[in-house]
TrEMBL record:
Cofactor: (6R)-5,10-methylene-5,6,7,8-tetrahydrofolate; FAD
Organism domain of life: Bacteria
Domain Photolyase/cryptochrome alpha/beta: from-to ranges: 1-124
Protein name: Deoxyribodipyrimidine photo-lyase
Cited InterPro entries: Crypto/Photolyase_FAD-like_sf (IPR036134), Crypto/Photolyase_N_sf (IPR036155), Cryptochr/Photolyase_FAD-bd (IPR005101), Cryptochrome/DNA_photolyase_1 (IPR002081), DNA_photolyase_1_CS_C (IPR018394), DNA_photolyase_N (IPR006050), Rossmann-like_a/b/a_fold (IPR014729)
EC number: 4.1.99.3
Swiss-Prot/TrEMBL GO biological process terms: nucleobase-containing compound metabolic process; response to light stimulus; response to stress
Source organism per UniProt: Sphingobium subterraneum
Organism classification: Bacteria, Pseudomonadati, Pseudomonadota, Alphaproteobacteria, Sphingomonadales
């Protein structure tokens, strides 16, 4: 009797607990189900779909090298898995546990109809493992992180199975093309293809590359013009590499390695938050923020569009937004600046930015994205940061010598020295680059006035 391996954001063969458990039981049918019928807003964004296409292709090739293959289907997970069990006579379903609310619902539905076994392994610790002294979930990162570290290191990563036995008959599979995951015209993904190699091999190449640089991470991660961070985020999101594999690959105890380990604990923290607050992507963590008078999207339409296109007149913000559009990724420091700019300078609801990132990031992740947007907004269950209004023109020269701006905003590429951070003020703004859409002081006052409506 074959076993079904239900794959979602765990598209790897190494350190894959569900796969190893399935292989032990005999023939395995690996299946990926594209569900475009879920809650509309949470249908996978366009950049993620591009990534998924290539990651599934890579996974299928790796499975075929082991005598197996990937079965692709579309529809509701519980219906598809039940149909596959009927067709193949499969008895059990193995899967890695996921914590997005729609996946938890799907797991409940599947478990009503089939023998579903969920395994851990996409996080350093299963999210609900650590509890505060009073037995509740953590809301604040630092104590959460300390509690996680107590349980570290994670178990050593396990290798991929050398061979997988096939069922007598392979069930029918749709083709990747039928899933229509790639952009049609225009093909906006060429910049992504240049930057990324989706799939498990690409993930391990990134990791190998980073391991040698990890001791400098402490400093280099803040400099957007350098490749100082790991760029593992899309690989980790799609589960092409396990966090345990990342943890164990790092060598030594430099400040860089310690800081990096703390950063990957943020992933676990975000899962812990969405497990406790499943609506975190749409509901303010602090209800007091419900009274904040955001500008309406119709009033702010032109500003939102300028932000998305990287035409705000603030070079560091524009560089980040264009990096995002072209490569599907943005440097963390610049994500903070660009998010703060939308929320505070433009007084636009954080949910507008969260939705744009969801659609355009190759690492778009429900937990990480909503936790970080709410963190910048101050609306989350942790510290209130609304009053900390980042000044883009102060941040910019602090973290960028100008090279990042020159790379991503070609209109400014010829400007030497510090003037590139604020060409307007230096009288060298080219005609094809916009003036600032709002002044810093004016924006700050408007944001703080709006914030006075937030009670408590
Ligand atoms: P590294 O610095 O090398 O960190 C290693 C890994 O740790 C990352 O790959 C990521 O998995 C994790 N990590 C690091 N920082 C964070 C963080 N602050 N929160 C959660 N996990 C973290 N990250 C996403 O993976 N998906 C998102 O949708 C996402 N949205 C964000 C939105 C905003 C407004 C902000 C400010 C940050 C967001 N981040 C998100 C967090 C962070 O910017 C990215 O994880 C990081 O830039 C990815 O680059 P890296 O892999 O080189 O990170």
């Amino acid at each position: 009797k074959p076993t079904l391996l239900w794959l979602r954001r765990d598209l790897r063969l190494r350190d894959q607990a569900a796969l190893l458990a399935a292989v032990e039981e005999g023939p395995v049918i690996p299946v990926y189900i594209l569900d475009d019928h879920g809650p509309k807003y949470r249908i996978m964004g366009a950049a993620s779909r591009w990534w998924l296409h290539h990651s599934l292709a890579a996974l299928d090739a790796a499975l075929r090298a082991r005598g197996s293959r990937l079965i692709l289907r579309r529809g509701k997970a519980a219906d598809v898995l039940a149909a596959l069990a009927d067709e193949s006579g499969a008895g059990r379903v193995h899967a890695i546990a996921h914590y997005e609310p729609w996946w938890r619902n799907a797991e409940r539905d599947v478990a009503k109809r089939l023998d579903l076994v969920c395994h851990d392994g996409n996080y350093l610790l299963p999210p609900a493992t650590v509890k505060t002294g009073s037995g509740g979930p953590y809301k604040i990162f630092t104590p959460f992180s300390r509690a996680v570290v107590e349980h570290m290191p994670p178990p050593a990563p396990r290798p991929a199975p050398a061979h997988m036995s096939a069922p007598d008959h392979w069930p029918k599979s749709e083709t990747l093309d039928e899933c229509s995951l790639l952009p049609t015209k225009p093909d906006w993904a060429t910049g992504m293809a240049e930057e990324w190699t989706p799939g498990e091999e690409g993930a391990h190449e990134r990791l190998d590359d980073f391991v040698d640089k990890a001791s400098d991470y402490d400093e280099a991660r803040n400099l957007p013009s350098q490749e100082g961070s790991s760029r593992l985020s899309p690989h980790l999101h799609f589960g092409e590499i396990s966090p345990a594999a990342v943890w164990h690959a790092l060598r030594g105890r430099s400040a860089g390695v310690t800081t990096f380990r703390t950063e990957i604990i943020w992933r676990d923290y975000a899962q812990n938050i969405i497990l406790t607050y499943p609506d975190y992507g749409k509901a303010n963590g602090k209800a007091a923020f419900d009274t904040l008078p955001w500008r309406s999207t119709s009033e702010a339409r032109a500003d939102i569009s300028a932000w998305k296109k990287g035409l705000t007149g603030y070079p560091i913000v524009d560089a980040g937004m264009r990096q995002l559009w072209t490569s599907g990724w943005m440097h963390n420091r610049v994500r903070m600046i660009a998010a703060s700019f939308l929320i505070k300078h433009l007084l636009v609801d954080w949910r507008v930015g969260e939705a744009w990132f969801w659609d355009t990031l190759v690492d778009a992740d429900y937990g990480n994205n909503s936790v970080n947007w709410q963190w910048v907004a101050g609306s989350g269950v942790d510290a209130n940061m609304f009053g900390r209004i980042m000044a883009p023109l102060v941040q910019s020269p602090k973290f960028d010598a100008g090279d990042y701006i020159r790379q991503w905003v070609p209109e400014l590429a010829h400007i030497q020295g510090d003037a590139v951070h604020d060409p307007d003020a230096h009288g060298c703004r080219p005609a094809d680059y916009p003036a600032k859409i709002i002044g810093h002081r004016e924006a700050r006052e408007r944001a703080l006035a709006a914030y006075r409506h937030v009670k408590g």
